[in-house]
Design a protein that fits this description.
- The complex is a heterodimer of chains A (304) and B (229).
- Chain A has 304 residues and is α+β, with helices and mostly antiparallel strands.
- Chain A is 68% helix and 8% strand.
- Chain A contains ten helices and four strands.
- Chain A has a four-stranded antiparallel beta sheet.
- Chain B has two domains: 149 residues, P-loop containing nucleotide triphosphate hydrolases (Rossmann fold); 64 residues, no CATH class.
- Chain B contains seven helices and ten strands.
- The longest helix of chain B is centred in the last third of the chain and has 16 residues.
- In chain B, a hairpin with a 2-residue loop joins strand 4 and strand 5.
- In chain B, helix 3 crosses helix 4.
- Chain B is globular.
- The mean pLDDT of chain B is 91.
- Classes of the chains: A alpha+beta (304), B alpha/beta (229).
- Chains A and B meet through helix 8 and helix 9 of A and helix 2 and helix 3 of B.
Amino acid sequence: MRLRFVLSQTFQGLSRNLAMTVSVILVTFVSLTFVGAAALLQIQVGNLKNDWYDKVEVSAFMCPANSATPACAGGEATQEQVDAIGELLASESMAPYVDEVYLESKEDAFEAFQEQMADTVWAQSLTVEQMQVSYRVKLVDPEQYQIVADELEGRPGVEVVVDQREQLEPLFLILNRTTLLSVGLAGVMIVTAVLLITTTIRLSAMSRRRETGIMRLVGASNLFIQLPFMLEGAIAALIGAVLSVGGLFLGVRYLVEDWLAGSTPWVQFVDTGDVLTVAPFLVLAAILLAGISSIVTLGRYTKV
Amino acid sequence: MIRFENVSKVYARGARPALDQISLEIERGEFVFLVGASGSGKSTFLNLVLRQERPTSGQIYALGKELSQVSRWKVPHLRRQIGTVFQDFQLLSNKTVFENVAIAPQVIGKPRHHILTAVPEVLELVGLDGKEKRLPHELSGGEQQRVAIARAMVNRPAVLLADEPTGNLDPTTSIGIMRLLDRINRTGTTIVMATHDDEIVDQMRKRVVELSGGVMVRDQSRGVYGASR
C-alpha cells in the first residue's frame, strides 16, 4: 500500500511537471554523454599506449662518417666506442631500465632501408658505407626514456639518441586535450543538471506543499514525504543516463566500429564492450547527481 | 494526557512571550475549550502539543512523553496519535472524500483491506456515508469540516486538537459539528478545541481555559465563554 502510494505520488509529480522532467532528462543525457566520451577517450589512449609502447624503442645512433653534428667531431665511431656503448647497455646499472638491446649494423640498416625505400631514387643512390651503426633499446618502462637517454648522450661516438615515443606524443596530446575539453563541458553540464534538478524538485515540492503539509500532520515520516520527490529526480536522471549510454553505444557502433576501424584496421579502437564497461559508472553518476540534488533541496522541506 | 509545566514560548528575542508560564493538566477523555482573543496564544498552545513548535522554557508532556525528549524522527509517531482539525478544513481539492480520508492511514502504511473498512466506518461516524466519491467543492462547509474530522479520527487518535473548527461555519452547522465532536469525546477521545465562538462554549458547559496575552487567566470546569457572564 505504502509503496504504491509513493509510486503514484512520484508519477503524478513527473507528469505534472512534464516540461521540467524532460529538461532534466535531456540535461543529464548531454552531461553524461560528455562524461562517457571522456572516459572512452581515455580508454582509447590506454589502448594505444599498450599497443604502441610495446613496439617503440629508443635508438642510439652512432656517429657515421662525415657527420656534421658536433658530437661526432671525432669522425666515424670506432669499434671500441660501439663496444663501449654495448657494454654500458648490458651493465648492471642499466639493467632495471633496459629490457632488450639489439645492435643494428650498417649492413642491417642498409637492408632495412632498401626494403622500406625500394624503387625510389634514394635506395639506388645509397651505399652500405653511408649507413650508420645504431643500438635499438627496448625499455622495461617506456616512460623512463630520459634516464637511458641521459646516460647515453654525450658518450664518445654517440651521435644522437631518439625516442620513437616522441613521434606518438602529438597524437596523445590531441587525445588528452580532447578528453580535457570533454571533461570541461561535462563539468559545465553537470552543474546545469544539478541546478535544474534542484529547481525541479523545489518546484514540485512547492506545488504539493498543501499535500505534504497534510501528510506531515497525519504523521507521515520524513522519508515517506520526501521519497516521491527523490524518486522523481532519480527517475528523470536515470532515463538521461540510459539515453547517454544508448547514444554512446550507437556512436561507437557506427562511427568507430563500422567506419574508423574499417578504414584504419591497424589501430585498436574502443568498442561497444568498452561502452558497456563505462555504462554502470554513468548510471551511478546519474543516481549521485539526483541524490545529492534532492538531499540539498529537501533539507529545507524536512522541518518537522 | 497533556501536561504543561511552566511553559513559555517567545518567538523573537525581546518580544512579548506568546505563552507565559503556562501550567495545566488535561486528563484523558476531557473536553477542553481554549478561549481568548486573537493572539492570546491559543494556536501556539496547539502547535506546542503537535511539536510544530518547541517551548522556550518549561516541559510539555503529551501521551506519556516529555516532548523535548522526542527525537525528530519520532515526531511523526507522536502525531499519529493526535488528530487535528482546522478552521479552513485543509482538504485536497483534487481528491474525493474517500481519498482525503484515506490519506491518513495510507501514509502510515496501513494495509489496503484495513483502509477499505476503516474509511467507510469513520465516514459513517461523521455522517457522510454515501458521499465517498464527492469532491470537496461539491460539499457544504459543514460537510467539508466533517471530512476533515473523519481524516483526523480515522487512525483512532487518543487526542483531537481542533483550531476554531466552527470558525467558517454558520451557527446551525456549527451545532452539528459540536454534536459530532461531543460524540467523539464520549467514546474516550480527549479533545482540545480553540475557539472564539461564545455561544458554543456557553451551550456545551465544558472545561474552559482562557488565555489573554499568553497568560492563563482562567481555568474553569463547566465554564462559559466570558467570565463575567
